[in-house]
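in:
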């Protein structure tokens, strides 16, 4: 079994979709820990409800020292011996050193059809650009933000009258489909891109 650590910063809805899928019979991955950068992350309770161990490494005491923060993460992970990391709404940018350590073993979900709209405010940016299609991507994590090899994408139509909030809600439904589907393949060694239609 591939031991999977899931990193979160908030409510963890994508984390829940991953944990629930890994609980299904025949999955080659198993969650070993859910790690958050805040003890207030709502997803911690949701992970505990599912019997998954949790850990917290608060970024605030490190005062911008990302290397020290990541060293604390590495120490926190050691008892759980993860084989890979899934970033699921983890709102911290990781250094090149951490990314290199986990190269080929760390994936992320991003709310746009990469390479479009790296970074934040993706739904508003898609609307401002007049896009007819929007969606989400799962990619390998590299030292460059939202730039690793794409492992899967799911598209949604942009509807007349959409707001960033309505578009985000529709994309989130697809995130919950896409991320588990990509992880299920990834833990078996299949890294061919997956395209889901809404």
């Amino acid at each position: 079994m591939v031991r999977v650590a899931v990193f979160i910063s908030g409510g963890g809805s994508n984390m829940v979709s991953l944990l629930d899928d890994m609980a299904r019979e025949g999955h080659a991955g198993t969650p070993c820990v859910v790690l958050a950068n805040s003890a207030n992350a709502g997803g911690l309770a949701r992970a505990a409800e599912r019997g998954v161990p949790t850990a917290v490494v608060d970024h605030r005491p490190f005062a911008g020292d990302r290397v020290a923060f990541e060293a604390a993460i590495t120490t926190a992970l050691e008892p759980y011996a993860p084989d890979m990391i899934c970033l699921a709404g983890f709102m911290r940018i990781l250094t090149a050193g951490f990314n290199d350590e986990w190269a080929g073993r760390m994936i992320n979900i991003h709310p746009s059809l990469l390479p479009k709209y790296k970074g934040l405010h993706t739904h508003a940016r898609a609307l401002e650009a007049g896009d007819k299609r929007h969606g989400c991507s799962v990619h390998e994590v590299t030292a460059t933000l939202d730039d690793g090899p794409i492992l899967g994408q799911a598209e949604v139509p942009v509807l007349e009258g959409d707001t960033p909030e309505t578009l985000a809600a529709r994309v989130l439904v697809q995130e919950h489909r896409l991320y588990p589907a990509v992880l299920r393949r990834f833990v078996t060694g299949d890294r061919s891109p997956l395209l889901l239609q809404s």
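note: The chain has a mean pLDDT of 97.
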